[in-house]
């Protein structure tokens, strides 16, 4: 799996979870939801194009979900150009820790 695939998976999962939670809270009869993400490169510009396929809802409800999809936590982080700062940690690690990816989210 390529790095951009993981990024798209994160965005897709966040979108699907957010929209399913919203429809459940509203009591809407969502039959199915498919989130497809396309990563496009045109010249030097990179773009992510989400495509939603929603079944079981009326056009107004679908439009509301499309609006919400524009404001999921991962969508907003990507759109804001979230700053990324790499730092070095000079502490020693043991063999067990060498073999795993460490993800940390601090509040």
Automatic annotation (TrEMBL):
Source organism superkingdom: Bacteria
Gene3D superfamilies per UniProt: 3.30.300.20
InterPro entries: KH_dom-like_a/b (IPR015946), OsmC/Ohr_fam (IPR003718), OsmC/Ohrsf (IPR036102)
Name of this protein: OsmC family protein
């Amino acid at each position: 799996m390529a790095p951009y695939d993981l990024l798209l998976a994160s965005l897709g999962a966040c979108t699907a979870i957010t929209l399913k939670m919203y429809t459940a809270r509203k009591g809407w009869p969502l039959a199915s939801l498919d989130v497809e993400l396309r990563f496009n490169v045109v010249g030097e510009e990179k773009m992510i194009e989400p495509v939603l396929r929603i079944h079981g809802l009326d056009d107004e409800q679908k439009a509301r979900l499309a609006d919400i999809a524009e404001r999921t936590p991962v969508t907003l982080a990507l759109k804001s150009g979230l700053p990324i700062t790499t730092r070095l940690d000079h502490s020693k690690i043991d063999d067990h820790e060498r073999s795993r990816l460490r993800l940390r989210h601090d509040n």
